[in-house]
Design goal:
25 strands; 5% helix; 5-stranded antiparallel beta sheet; Neuraminidase; mainly beta; globular; single chain; 375 residues
């Protein structure tokens, strides 16, 4: 998306520890955390089956959603999901029972891509009951912390403010990494110069403590972990703890990037692979009609990238720092695919749609959460 949304015709869908060293950070290698209650930490702890599994089946877990956006697992295997435009937070069990747990205050829509975006359950949720959210507010995008005690949502503490917002390019994905720190993706808010400005929080991947302070070892002593991003909405870690990111391009190429501390990923100087000095090239790129990716997840030797405009689930095998040949699944079958996450304890994914957003054109309640089995 440039300064406007991508519009596509809708199809009808069928039935390291907290004391990580600077050297490890620079290599992008972040060892597994000891905490529980966070799927990311569990998914990078060496649980690969040792085979190259692929999607073998898909079923509906829950329907009746309106632009579900963020998803994060609770220790019991259920998930918390946000709805972008209703500002509501829901709990969804693996059997499909959905319960609204609260509405997040101070959220506003941008009538585009802003609103209530990412959610991240604290790795120490069993003791602190914290839930982290990223949302658009009256003056900015921000990261906040609330308390979810298992039945209701309360409290509201602003951790990071002053992330510029706009109608589009708000980023919004937040996740705890295997090092125990919170990572966030921020868009350039439709001003590409911000992505190259180390003093700006926009067009970046941020890395922070649970209180919203710069994490130890960050390359510039600020919240900024990497720069040169346009509108990143996907973060995940592989089994070796390497950080991967999915990013919307402008009109040429969308990107899959291997993120390393302090690296510059090019925007707006580069879109896709380029030869400009000091820029880090993507590991894979797609034309914008094939992808327009939001979330990315790692499962059993591969990355899974959810495509909005591309209306497909891309599987990309990974070996070390290399990304293999992408293969598309479910092309044009379920519409705009927003979020994908590995299911804890299962060789499966949860995959959600946002067909009821401005680009999808479907009515409220048209979105679904699917389970994709791998084998």
């Amino acid at each position: 998306m440039a300064s406007h949304p991508r519009i596509t015709a809708r199809r009808v869908p069928p039935a390291l520890t907290a004391a990580a060293t600077a050297v490890a950070l620079a290599a992008g290698l972040l060892g597994a955390a000891a905490g529980t209650g966070n799927a990311t930490a569990r998914s990078v702890s060496g649980t690969d089956s040792g085979i190259d599994s692929v999607p073998t089946g898909i079923r509906t877990v829950s329907s009746g959603w309106t632009v579900p956006w963020g998803l994060s697992w609770l220790p019991d295997g259920s998930a918390l999901l946000t709805e972008r435009d209703s500002f509501k937070l829901f709990k969804l069990t693996q059997s499909g029972t959905r319960t609204q747990v609260g509405t997040v205050p101070n959220v506003v829509t941008t009538n585009g891509e802003g609103g209530l975006l990412g959610v991240a359950v604290s790795p120490n949720w069993r003791t602190d009951h914290y839930v982290y959210l990223m949302h658009s507010a009256a003056s900015d995008n921000r990261i906040v912390r609330m308390t979810y005690d298992g039945s209701s949502l309360s409290g509201y503490k602003v951790l990071v403010t002053g992330i510029a917002k706009n109608k589009y390019h708000n980023g919004g994905r937040i996740k705890f990494g295997p090092d125990g720190y919170l990572y966030a993706t921020t868009g350039d808010a439709q001003n590409g110069d911000r992505a190259q400005d180390k003093n700006s929080l926009n067009g970046k991947i941020l890395r922070m403590t649970a209180d919203g302070k710069p994490a130890p070892g960050n390359p510039f002593g600020t919240l900024v972990f990497s720069l040169g991003h346009r509108n990143p909405q996907g973060l995940t870690w592989d089994a070796q703890g390497r950080l991967w990111e999915a990013e919307f391009g402008n009109s040429k190429y969308d990107e899959l990037n291997l993120i390393e501390s302090g690296k510059n990923y090019g925007w707006p100087i580069c879109e896709g692979t380029c030869s400009s000095s000091g820029m880090t090239n993507p590991k894979r790129q797609w034309t914008v009609s094939e992808a327009s990716p939001s979330a990315v997840a790692y499962a059993d030797g591969a990355l899974y990238l959810a495509a909005l405009r591309g209306e497909r689930l891309w599987r990309i095998p990974v070996s070390g720092t290399s990304a293999g040949t992408p293969v598309a699944h479910y092309t044009s079958q379920y519409g705009r695919l927003r979020t994908v996450e590995k299911v804890p304890g299962k060789n499966a994914l949860w995959l959600s749609t946002t067909n009821a957003d401005n680009n999808g054109g479907e009515p409220d309640g048209a979105d679904k959460v699917f389970q994709v089995d791998l084998g």
